[in-house]
Amino acid sequence: MKAFRLLAIGLCIVLSVTNVSSEVDEDDTLLRAMHDEMDRALSELQLEDEPKPYFISYTVEETTTASESYVLGAQDGSIYDQVRRLTTKVRVGSKSLDNSNFVNLQSDPTAGANSGSLLLPIDDNYHELRRSLWIATDQAYKEAIAAYAAKKAAVSAQSRRSRSADFSDEVPFSFKSSNEVPQPSTEAISSIARELSKTFQGHSEIFGSSATVVSVATKRTYLDSEGNYHTYTTEFCSAKSRAETHSTEGTELSDTTTFLAKGCGELPDVSTMKQQTAQMVDQLKRQRHAEELAAYDGPVLLEAQAVAEFANQVLLDLFGAVPLPQIGNADFDARIQQLTTPFLDRMNARVFPRSFNIVNDPTITEYEGRPLLGSYSVDAEGLPSRRTELVVEGRLRRLLTSRAPIGSLENSTGSHRGLPLPLPGNLFLTMDSAVTMDELKSQLLATAESNGSDFAVFIRKISNALDIHSDHAILQQKFHASMSGAILVLPSVYATKVYSDGRETPLQPVVIVNFDPSFFKDILGVSETRQHFDVPVSTLGPVMVSSVLTRGVGSLAGADQTIASVVTPALLFEELSLRSARDQNPKLPIVPHPLSNN
Q: Which pLDDT belongs to residue 539?
């Protein structure tokens, strides 16, 4: 039970290293220190009567973060931070059975969750870097041999029908980024946030607002004992405007307009962002008078943005395959069996309509002239990104994997993006029998009429978990549902009732409940037009929850910088169950907003 309490609180061909020497730039002090200390550890690191390491990896991430927040033109917060973090992984035993993916509940279940992780000095001091690498490697090795001994005992005592190897064989890969990441300009960031925040001035119906611009520049240096090596630079910028209000009955309403780009210099111009923020404000003000939908079972049309967020919350967890952890407790081991993707047992079975296709291809960098922010060249385990056909003509052909084999999936798809769950980069959804949007709406209404209903539901936008306060009840509900293996999708931001005569009535936030992956087979149609959305990864599904449970909340570090690009049509589901997202109405403010008198 201690593990569950900690989880709730958290609401997450072999080459010797000497063969990498040709990659080492003597002018690169960090890389030289990593290489020299790894060479020494491989030859000398061993406790008496204990196994030597068979694998060591060092990952150093140098990150510069700048963030500026404003409310109604007044500065609300400012952050500038530079950090260099080392993560060391040591494996003992063999690829068939080693110390990884194991939790010993007889001790602290999160012990070793950040094994070998520490901050490095920002300055390139060779001797201090070597000292830090030595300490981290020593710590990781000691924890590895303790975990290995406990895991061997647990494996021999428990009776799983079969188990996969713990580490895959992969062809070594080297990559060196040609880009130097520029330092963010806090003055420019501050100016954008200030101007965006002014958009909310004069709107007394908006009870709370903020504008935040965040710039993150990262250089990752990776080296392991199998010959994988890379330096990889990324730059990411977001400008986010958030507004909060209440319906006339007191229901909490909020919306966020987010602009994402590889760098702040590639964001849309400020006037364009302010215009779209103003449109969001007007829409949210109209939403205050929306109708409440108590319950609904029937056809639902998801517009492309809603599909992209739906994919983020559902498909990412279904397509990510990670092995179940070995637990040093038989009862707990049985309980965690439910926290794996149900798609794992559906390989080659039909899971979507027969003409439906889903492809993950992070090697593609643009779609219709716009950059795909989910693109990447090399993953966090040093393996190249690659195209993976996930669903072909409705049948499940592959799941995304890391170097942890699972079942028949023995090799990585290059999908380790720094989080516990293997994730796509660019997800492309297509269906052969696509129709125009007007035809899809007609099909929606015809299906509703055949069910005896005079209206259907059209969902235009679904909330992202990163746009909801962490203490919000709906996030807690989703988290606890995931702990039991259930799927709960976050509420809609905008949804409407659609009548046969074309009238649309706005609805207050609704949630899709009791969703089952088998419902994907009941997709009736898709639109011809496809749209591209860059979505901050916010999956809180069962697989990610099990990963947080076994690896600790620290394993989710960097989640707010992980982007998946989804290119998708609108989707028409034959039947979904919806209910109001409202639990209870808070009391409205007694005194009107101060801007009411202006």
A: 61
Nearest C-alpha neighbor of 469 from the set 70, 11, 67 = 11
Nearest to 342 by CA among 475, 163, 521: 521
Separation of alpha carbons 194 and 201, rounded Å:
12
- Residue 84, CA atoms < 13 Å, CB-side half-sphere: 13
* Coil, helix or strand at residue 140: helix
Percent helix, strand, coil in the chain (nearest 5)? 30, 30, 40
**Which is it for the CA torsion 226, 374, 302, 370, positive or negative?**
negative
Backbone φ, ψ for residue 484 (5° rounding): -100, 5
The pTM (predicted TM-score) of the whole model is 0.88
Cβ atoms of 319 and 390 within 8 Å: the answer is yes
DSSP type of residue 106: T
Rounded to an integer, the average pLDDT of 552-568 is 67
pLDDT at residue 390 in the model: 98
**Cα 461–chain centre separation:** 18
Structure tokens, 288: 């205050």
Would you mind telling me the total number of residues written for the chain in this entry? 598
Q: How far is CA 310 from the centre of its chain?
A: 12
- String of DSSP letters for 353-411: -TTEEEEE-TT--EETTEE-TT--SB-TTS-B---EEEEETTEE---B--SS-BTTB-S
CA distance 414 to 401: 7
Q: How far is the C-alpha of 216 from the C-alpha of 65, rounded, in Å? A: 5
Give residue 506's Cα distance to chain centre: 30
Q: In this structure, how many other beta carbons lie within 10 angstroms of the beta carbon of residue 8?
A: 12
Structure confidence by residue, pLDDT tens digits, 379-394 = 999 999 999 999 999 9
Q: How far is the C-alpha of 362 from the C-alpha of 122, rounded, in Å?
A: 31
Contact of 319 with 343, CB cutoff 8 Å: yes
Report the C-alpha dihedral over residues 475, 476, 481, 485, rounded to 10 degrees: 80
Instruction: For residues 231 and 213, give the distance between their C-alpha atoms in angstroms, rounded to a whole number.
Output: 27
d(CA 224, CA 20): 9
Nearest one of 222, 168, 167, 172 to 57, comparing CA atoms: 222
DSSP state of 311: I
Closest Cα to residue 517, out of 295, 316, 297?
A: 316
